[in-house]
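Q: Give me a backbone?
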Amino acid sequence: MTVADPYRTALHAQWHASADPSIMVYERLVLWKGAPTFRYGARPKQGAEGLHQSLSSHFSICAYHSNPLYNVFCTVGGSFNVIPKSMESTGDPRGMRFEYLLHAAEEHAELACELLLMIAEHPHVHQREIGPGYVLPIGEPLIAGSALEFLYFTYPFLDDPHIYEVNPAGEVDHPKAYIQTLWVIPITRAERDFIRHRGVEQFEEFLHARHRERYDADFLRASLC
């Protein structure tokens, strides 16, 4: 029996109308993680003008109850447009497009969605090329009492069992669009300084060595360094 999915139907129509690749992202996400537990429509903060034109008009965030400690939040529609300057830097005429993944406890679901919307808009609002290893300053603590003031972007190696294979779960490689899912990890100033002084590769090794710690989902955690 086929289960009706109005969101999928709308995304299919958008692909035919404007070549919006969100349908490929959504179908890949369902294959990767299954049907979402919840799906949040984008809600810009009060006073904002609405979704940036570089995002899909059907932009949303799919949430998955992964385990008792945190949910996984994934964007759909952040890859509507090519990341600025990525065609030149990659040498690929398709350029790079990104979707974003964040771990957060259930009580921080609203904040997680606000962050992901801001993240998806960021490269287009500021005409800035981003990618794995990029660090984005938030400008304030993530929540009251938090030491987390920056966001670090990397590949979703905790979520994607095929991350080191030819066909990673978080990747869409289509003749018209190349899309990669990036994992966004809130980090402290000391961790940002670690990246500056010792480089992304050593920071990745640092994270791998601590993969059993809740370094990405606990918004009140202490700095790892």
User: Anything to note?
Assistant: The helical segments are 6-18, 22-33, 86-90, 109-125, 189-198, 200-209.
